Amino acid sequence: MWQEIGIALCLMLVLEGILPFVCPQRWREAFSQLLQLHDRQLRLMGLASMLLGTALLYLLH
């Protein structure tokens, strides 16, 4: 189980590094827009992301 968690974390880092590598200017603009969101909006986005990820894992498993 720990090996799978490690693999998942490594894949997450690879996926998150693609955008800043490919188009750093657009990534910087998107990040600056995220900084201007309220905490509630960020929490809702995080919750939606977690629920979507959980649903996709359930469907794929």
TrEMBL record:
InterPro entries tied to this protein: DUF2065
Pfam families from the UniProt entry: DUF2065
Keyword vocabulary terms for this entry: Membrane, Transmembrane, Transmembrane helix
Transmembrane segments: 44-60
Xref: PANTHER family: INNER MEMBRANE PROTEIN, INNER MEMBRANE PROTEIN-RELATED
Name used for this protein in its record: DUF2065 domain-containing protein
Organism this protein belongs to: Serpens gallinarum
